[in-house]
Design goal:
By secondary structure, the protein is of the alpha/beta class. The protein has one domain (2-230): putative 2-phosphosulfolactate phosphatase. Helices cover 33% and strands 25% of the residues. It has helices spanning 8-13, 27-36, 48-57, 82-86, 102-108, 123-133, 152-165, 173-178, 198-204, and strands at residues 2-7, 17-22, 41-44, 62-68, 71-72, 94-98, 112-118, 137-142, 212-218, 224-230. It has a 10-stranded mixed sheet, with helices on both faces. Strand 4 and strand 5 (71-72) form a beta hairpin. The two termini are 20 Å apart. The model has no long low-confidence stretch (mean pLDDT 97).
Length: 231
């Protein structure tokens, strides 16, 4: 198994084989909590306008979740915040999700043979899924901050999954805790309390909380539908 680590949207565009799009803060952490909360379907879309369009198309109770500049989009039901997701009744609802980095990474991975989304909270499950699939090529894409700046949490998650795949029993718990003082420090800024509260940091760094992967399938319309797969 060949394993590559790349970054940003360009990395997603050039990804080959089974591709893991990593966004710890916060896209795929939000997706994990949404599935755990009982969401019935989850779509990743590129732009807010796409979410509004899909809301008109699908029957049932629809919620719009996402961010621009880290803040909730006007007209949306929630921002890209696991704290907000945990406060919502999601059972049986359909979720449309758009973010600056993670969802666009999913939609950009056109060359992948298979796409999954990952975070620290389902990293071990993701590695188990990959081992079971046994692909020849794995590309781990760390999306970074706004898909343009390297971040410790996404690269840490990528390295951790790589180590699990190569048989290294790496203990990253201290590194995860220390994210609070580096890229995770923004969750503790008074200016961000309303859209990126401290609880988001702890929810996004609860290492291996979930035993499922998030697999993405690109629809004929160019959106992505995400599926929860227990492993």
């Amino acid at each position: 198994m060949e394993i590559r680590i790349s970054e940003f949207v360009e990395g997603a565009k050039n990804a080959e084989g089974l591709t893991v799009i990593i966004d710890v803060f916060r896209a795929f952490s939000v997706a994990c909590y949404a599935f755990d909360g009982g969401i019935s379907r989850l779509f990743d879309v590129s732009e807010p306008e796409d979410a509004f369009t899909l809301k008109e198309k699908y029957k049932g109770e629809i919620i719009l979740v996402g961010e621009r500049d880290e803040k909730k989009i006007s007209g949306f039901d929630a921002g890209n915040s696991p704290t907000e997701i945990l406060q919502m009744n999601l059972s049986g609802k359909i979720m449309m999700h758009t973010t600056t980095a993670g969802t666009n990474g999913i939609l950009s991975a056109a060359g992948a043979t298979e796409i999954v989304g990952a975070s620290l909270i389902n990293a071990s499950a993701t590695a188990r899924y990959i081992r079971q699939a046994s692909p020849e090529m794995v590309t781990l894409v760390a999306m970074g901050y706004r898909a343009s700046m390297s971040t410790e949490e996404d690269l840490l998650c990528a390295r951790y999954i790589r180590d699990l795949l190569t048989g290294r029993n790496t203990d990253i718990r201290d590194e995860v805790k220390n994210l609070r003082f580096s890229s995770g420090s923004r969750f503790f800024s008074p200016d961000n309390l309303l859209h990126s509260p401290p609880s988001d940091f702890f929810l996004c760094t609860d290492l291996n909380r979930f035993d499922f992967v998030i697999k993405a399938g690109i629809t004929s319309e160019g959106y992505a539908e995400l599926f929860k797969i227990d492993v």
